[in-house]
Amino acid sequence: MVNFRLALTIDTLTAFRLAAEAGSFTRFRTAPAFASWCGLVPSERSSGETERCGGITKTGNRLARTALVESAWHYLTCTPRPKAPAPGVDVPAAIRARADDCTARLCRRREALAAAGKSSCKANAAVARELACWVWEIGRRAEGTLG
């Protein structure tokens, strides 16, 4: 049932894809580990005291990364109001509250990145990475392995 509970933050098909690709969210010790598995972490080229960060690594699961990046474009035009669950789907209050927090946070994050002058693609990659972390948390809550 992970897919229906994640569907409060993203659509049902995307939630199902992420749940199927991940298998079990308990595989990942932390949310950043899940984002890394998706390939949504910045690359780094460092030497000595010089640190250079680049674009996302794209070395993780291509299908999960694509689903998250495509879902992140939604936060460009969505409102931070809570989304109602599908009819007949029972969602625990704790998961619903976290999904509503996620939607509001990602809308604000997208607006802040745009106001800071970041390009749409960079802003979308940042939102997709944060969305991956939220998906991990909600997935763990739905599995009953997180608070």
Number of domains: 1
* Intertermini distance: 18 Å
Strand content: under 5%
Number of strands: 2
N-to-C SSE series? HHHEEHHH
Radius of gyration: 15 Å
What is the tally of helical segments?
6
- For the largest beta sheet, what order do the strands appear in spatially? 1-2
Enumerate the spans where pLDDT stays under 50 for 5 or more consecutive residues. none
Structure description:
- InterPro entries: Transpos_IS110, Transposase_20.
- One of its GO terms (molecular function) is transposase activity.
- This is IS110 family transposase.
- Pfam families: Transposase_20 (PF02371).
- Helix 3 (about 30-40) crosses helix 6, helix 4 (about 60-70) crosses helix 6 and helix 5 packs antiparallel against helix 6.
- About 35% of the residues are buried.
- A two-stranded antiparallel ribbon has the order 1-2.
- It is mostly helical and about 150 residues long.
- It has helices at about 1-5, 10-20, 30-40, 60-70, 95-115, 120-145, and strands at about 40-45, 55.
- It has one domain.
- The model has no long low-confidence stretch (mean pLDDT about 90).
- The protein is built from six helices and two strands.
- The chain starts with a helix and ends with a helix.
